[in-house]
Amino acid sequence: MQLDEFFVTGEPLIYAGMVSIALVTAATIFILTYFKKWGWLWREWLTTVDHKKIGIMYLLSALAMLFRGGVDALMMRTQLAFPDMNFLNSQHYNEIFTTHGTVMIIFMAMPFLIGLMNVIVPLQIGARDVAFPYLNALSFWSFLFGAMLFNISFVIGGSPDAGWTSYTPLAGAAMSPGPGQNFYLLGLQLSGIGTLATGVNFMVTIIKMRAPGMKMFRMPIFTWSTLVTSFIIVFAFPILTVALALMTIDRIFGSQFFTLTGEGLPMMWANLFWMWGHPEVYIVILPAFGIFSEIIATFARKQLFGYKAMVWSMILIAGLSFLVWVHHFFTMGAGAFVNSVFSISTMLIAVPTGVKIFNWLATLYKSKIQFTVANLWALAFIPSFVIGGVTGVMLGMAAADYQFHNSYFLVAHFHYVLIAGTVFACFAGLVYWYPKMFGHKLNEKIGKLSFWFFLIGFHVCFFPQYFVGLDGMPRRVFTIIPEWMPLNVISTVGAFGMGIGFVIFVYNIYYSFRYSEREQTGDSWDGRTLEWATPTPVPFYNFATVPHIEDHDAFLDMKKKGKTTFEEDKLEPIHMPSNTGHPFIMMGIMFIASFGLVFEWLWMAIAGLIGVLIMMGIRSFDYDDGFHVEVDEIKRTERSARGL
Amino acid sequence: MSSHELKSGPLEYRTEQGQMNILGFWIFLGAEIVLFATLFATYAVLFGRTADAPLPGELFEPGIVLIMTFMLLTSSFTCGIAIHEMRRGSVKGLTTWLIITLLLGLGFLGFEIYEFIHYAHEGATLQSSAFWSSFFVLAGTHGLHVTLGIGWAILLLLQLAKRGLTPVTSRKVFIISLYWHFLDVVWIFIFTSVYLIGMVV
Fold first, then answer.
1. Shortest CA distance to A489 belongs to which of A79, A67, A101?
2. For residue A247, what are the contacts with CB-CB under 8 A and spacing of at least 6?
3. Which long-range CB contacts under 8 A does B111-114 form with residues at least 24 apart?
4. Span A71-114, pLDDT tens digits
5. What distance in Å separates the CA atoms of residue B147 and residue B42, rounded to the nearest whole number?
6. Is the confidence at residue A8, as pLDDT, over 90?
């Protein structure tokens, strides 16, 4: 292989990307060396098993991925603003819509939500860590290395260009030769390991590690949403694992699953992909519902209306999510009966979702609403998401779908649910729990500015797309005709509005780090759930003493009764797991193996897999039992944290 | 994170961590069921799509498959005896029966490798048609699981020799026994829905 085949050449934008990657890497190395921070990086972050730190690493990576996916989006919107634009050629455009979709779903939305789960769920249930801290670190590193593998594709080897759904036969070896599509397959496979492990981890954590007295129906709603999401992960992700593996074997080892030769079935890919892909949509929306529920209850200063209905509707949505996958390809021609069945199951999902919408409204009804930034995101979510949901039901009608299919109407619909649902929730959750993680709030004034830019930009960007879709503009085209221009110009203006909103949000992180008031108590918003019962910053063992839960909204109840999570006479030594560099190293080797497979260098892949097996063997012989935090140390930590 | 230890009940369930690991593994097996279910579904969809390659009925041999089935089913039984010995507190009984289990597993693998080579010889390979792709990937994934299980069990035998029965080692052995029984269940489905049906159609 020649060097110019290895690196992507001939595109000025990509050369700029290479230069910026080189500069950022050099700057990072320089800063770490100059300030002698390598040891700190290794001890405090790369080897950590603390769920709070892992969560923060997830959040930082997800923000970086949001930036990358956002830049992709702005490039597409620039190209589509006017007819005959020459900003991106068709090949480059194909690559960018593929990476935009994949990055946003797999490497932004999921890790963002999993990051929040990591930080918050153990705190909400009164646990000192997740059930398997080592596995948790492994999950994070598998995600990060998977994301890196996917992201380097645009400078090394070339990006995948068959869409984030990667339909065969287009994505097969015959029509998409070269490493591009392999990056997609192995990047997702590698990060998928971590997602599955996270699902198992949180199920066990939530089932087994709740504080005494916290019955299932006393759990905070975000914890419930995490539990239900974990169920979906465990039962949906293996389908993706198989689908990706089959396509990998097709492409690299010449099998015939999805090929046009050897009696392969290309449409089977669409089925397998969406049998995972549809539940995946709910993996990224249910935690969002959980976050909004927490925020609305806190800032309406009321108990969440219809708590049990909220839980049951989540469970119902999770069940239904496995029964609707065919609605992604009604036009495949499975026949009227099959389409009718999936049409009805699709529309059924609107019922439990509607229940949730009314419950949020009823929580707000006659309450004294506090318009904090976190709550603004939650309040903006309700009407915006309803627009996305209602157009979803329109798409769910199979007969009508023949008109909407593959048009910008669909693009507008799924951006309305994914941005107004998931992305708003990510911002809302980050703002809401920010003081718990970093010891200071984000500035409210700048936060509001970023919120309004993003919200208005969002509607300006995507609302016109419904209409340009009805005017016949198909998705995944790299150039437009003059009739579609006015609406596309508006849409592009909106997209840049969202971009400005994001930049202001990031600036706010910097500004608040410099100027925000530091938190004095752990209870930043007069909260209702247990995460606010810990001091800020949270000690690494979370709870000095685990409270006995007697009600839902556990912390509200504790505040009424004057209880805390630091009862000096009840202190006992706390058992904690030790840090370890294994997960980082193991997934680093896995990265090398996957990289070898991407370029079909089998020697490298095999050597890497042997390395991973050796690491697993080493882990098997690891009997490190962790350590105990002594009572004196707990006392010292808590007294200084609580200013006693 | 509690390290309190119960005084009664099976050794592997006495610590909270032990209970959590076992529950976690059950959930993982749930994911494995989905994984194999997807492979079975793929196989069912691609059934009959042999293109120019031989039909399964022409190649499948009842004798070998029956021997393989007996070996794996027996290994599941001996694995059960191994756990029974563990519950009695006998490290020697446990290791003996575990080794017998592994030998049966190795025998199974040997026959499977022979079978695959034989089919390839007759013109049925991973590449020859959609049907054979799905056959080799389904049976191969099961075989790969057995291989990994054998390697894993050898590591545990070393640990048992070094540490004897503790809450940790007994938990590990108990978990691998769950894994082994699971592979047996999967094989029963492969035997019936792949080999038996393949031989008559």
1. A79
2. A166, A168, A171, A172, A185, A257, A258, A269
3. B111/B64, B111/B67, B111/B68, B111/B71, B112/B68, B112/B139, B112/B143, B113/B143, B114/B64
4. 999 999 999 999 999 999 999 999 999 999 999 999 999 999 99
5. 23
6. no
The whole-angstrom distance between A12's CA and the closest CA on chain B is: 41
Interface test with B, best of A123, A263, A269, A623 (most B CBs within 10 A): A263
The percent of residues in chain A predicted with pLDDT above 70, rounded, is 100
Tokens 């059924």 belong to residue: A348
> Tell me, what's the pLDDT at B3?
53
The position carrying tokens 């939530």 is A206
Indicate yes or no: CB of B130 within 8 angstroms of CB of A128: no
Q: Which residue of A has its CA nearest to B172?
A: A620
Shortest CA distance from B18: residue in chain A: A131
Which stretch of DSSP H or E encloses residue A20? helix A12-34
Rounded Cα distance between B15 and B175, Å, is 15
Mean pLDDT computed over A486-514 = 97
Chain B from 31 to 70: CB within 8 A of any A CB? 31-32, 34-35, 38-39, 42, 45-46, 49-51
Instruction: Using pLDDT thresholds of 50, 70 and 90, give the confidence band for residue A398.
Output: very high
- Under an 8 A CB cutoff, do B19 and A208 touch? yes
Chain B contact for A174 (CB, 8 A cutoff): no
Element (H, E) at B157: helix B130-163
Residue A10: is its pLDDT beyond 80?
no
Cβ–Cβ < 8 Å for A637, A539: yes
Q: How far is CA B19 from CA A50, A132, A158, A211, B13, in A?
A: 21, 12, 47, 16, 5
Do residues B36 and B187 lie in contact, with contact meaning Cβ atoms separated by under 8 Å? no
State pTM to two decimals.
Answer: 0.96
Position B4 confidence tier, pLDDT thresholds 50, 70, 90: low
Residues of A (204-233) whose Cβ lies below 8 Å from B = 204, 207-209
In terms of Cβ atoms closer than 10 Å to its own Cβ (0-12, 13-18, 19+), residue A316 is: middle
